[in-house]
Design brief:
4 domains, 4-stranded antiparallel sheet, alpha+beta, globular, 15 helices, single chain, 432 residues
């Protein structure tokens, strides 16, 4: 146990070493608890219990997905109490542990080797529970390498979701058909302060068009309502659109919103990625576009194998689009943001001769941009799509579309991987 006094006497580098060690201890504890959950399932398989032990035997169910070994009905309760969770929480933990052993061997091997994070592995186990064993094994093969924490949590979820859809397109189509029937407009109860919520569930394209229309009307209200917030103007716009007699009486003409949708798909895949929303089937894409009112414009694909550059500091729209496609997320280590509403940073500053080109530009949120500018962090892009960072204490990180990896060894690390060796060579070239 480390006392407050011991921590208070640490230097900056000692604090970083200490938290790194404690983080590793926490990760290992999670792996050990997961192993114990699997063993608990083994011990409470009704086929292995003594004949006279009837507890929960009659209502035993598969411990994980369909086809996995059974577990007695009440087994999870005792296990859950020991780790301060409910019987339902323990049941889910045991189900994930069993599925990893029987259906997701690559993720299980990563847990055994200490490379895969338990939270990531459990997410895949839960997400694949309705899939067949072969479908789950395909997803396991596709995602196990990036389940080591290199991707922040929301980006890992975004990666796994289309893999599930691609593994079981018929199941995805059935879920889309079910969602088609789950569209509604519903008002909540009015609370004691006179406030209610109106929930509208419809196709993403319909909601996007409605939101664009609201923003257009709200903008036209700026002169009429100069002293209210943008949110209040948007509420006034909503009231006007659903009831034109609502005050203020605006002379707003018909709103014809233009909605831009980014779809990423390949000819041989039944799944497309609806940027900002997730995976959809190509059947859904065809059906949706066929019912879109007005003009549909298809923009050409940008060749990412060619460098694009301009002789100016300002970044034109097409170059910004290319940078987003090369770097699908904020390139700061372990960053989460995947939106287009970010700064585009000259990694080698323009004032120091850095070009405005796809080889030297990358997205950063304003906060991360300020950290790079003012807090001693350095970044270089040796190849398009790959950024090497150095923090103020000398640690180096490699960021690419698959996530973030530490590429300078930590204390007690094992033999470096080929990627780490390659990264070290890049660092040596950079230092030279």
């Amino acid at each position: 146990m480390v006392t407050d006094r011991a921590v208070a006497e640490m230097t900056a580098n000692q604090v970083l070493d200490f938290v790194e060690d404690q983080h590793a201890v926490r990760q290992q504890a999670e792996r050990d608890i997961l192993r114990a959950a699997y063993q608990w399932a083994v011990l409470h398989n009704p086929d292995t219990l003594p004949v006279h032990d009837k507890r929960g035997r009659d209502r035993a169910r598969p411990a994980g997905a369909e086809g996995t070994p059974r577990i007695t009905e009440y087994a999870a309760a005792t296990f859950g109490a020991r780790i301060q969770t409910s019987p339902l929480g323990a049941k889910r933990l045991i189900a994930d542990a069993v599925d990893l052993h029987h259906r997701l061997p690559k993720l299980q091997a990563g847990i055994d080797a200490g490379t895969v994070r338990v939270r990531h592995a459990r997410h895949v186990a839960e997400a694949t529970r309705d899939l067949t064993s072969d479908e789950a094994a395909w997803v396991d093969h596709e995602v196990h390498e990036v389940a080591d924490g290199r991707l922040p949590w929301t980006r890992f979820e975004t990666l796994v979701e289309p893999k599930i859809t691609a593994a079981a397109p018929e199941l995805a189509r059935a879920k889309e058909e079910a969602a088609e029937k789950d569209r509604f407009v519903r008002m909540s109860r009015v609370n004691r302060h006179g406030i209610a919520t109106l929930t509208i569930r419809d196709h993403a394209t319909v909601i996007l068009a409605a939101d664009t229309a609201l923003n257009a009307v709200a903008t036209s209200l700026e002169e009429t309502l100069p002293d209210v917030s943008k949110v209040e103007r948007k509420l006034a716009a909503f009231a006007h659109l659903v009831n034109p007699d609502t005050h203020p009486d605006l002379s707003v003409g018909p709103v014809k919103p233009k909605v831009k949708i980014y779809l990423h798909l390949t000819p041989d895949s039944p799944i497309a990625r609806f940027e900002g929303h997730g995976p959809v089937t190509t059947a859904w894409v065809r059906k949706t576009i066929a019912h879109v009112a007005g003009k549909v414009q298809v923009l050409p694909v940008i060749d990412l194998n060619q460098t694009m550059a301009v002789d100016a500091y300002e970044i034109p729209r097409r170059l910004r689009e290319m940078v987003h496609l090369i770097h699908p997320a904020d390139v700061f280590p372990y960053a989460v943001n995947t939106s287009r509403n970010v700064d585009i940073d000259h990694q080698e500053p323009h004032s120091e001769g850095g070009p405005t080109s796809s080889d030297n530009l990358a997205p950063l949120t304003r906060t991360h941009h300020r950290i790079k500018t003012h807090a001693g962090w350095q970044a270089r892009q040796p190849f398009p799509g790959i950024t090497i960072w150095r923090d103020p204490h000398g640690a180096h990180y490699l960021v690419d579309p698959t996530g973030t990896r530490r590429i300078t060894p930590t204390r007690g690390e094992q033999t470096p991987t080929p990627m780490e060796i390659h990264g070290t060579r890049l660092l040596l070239d950079w230092a030279a």
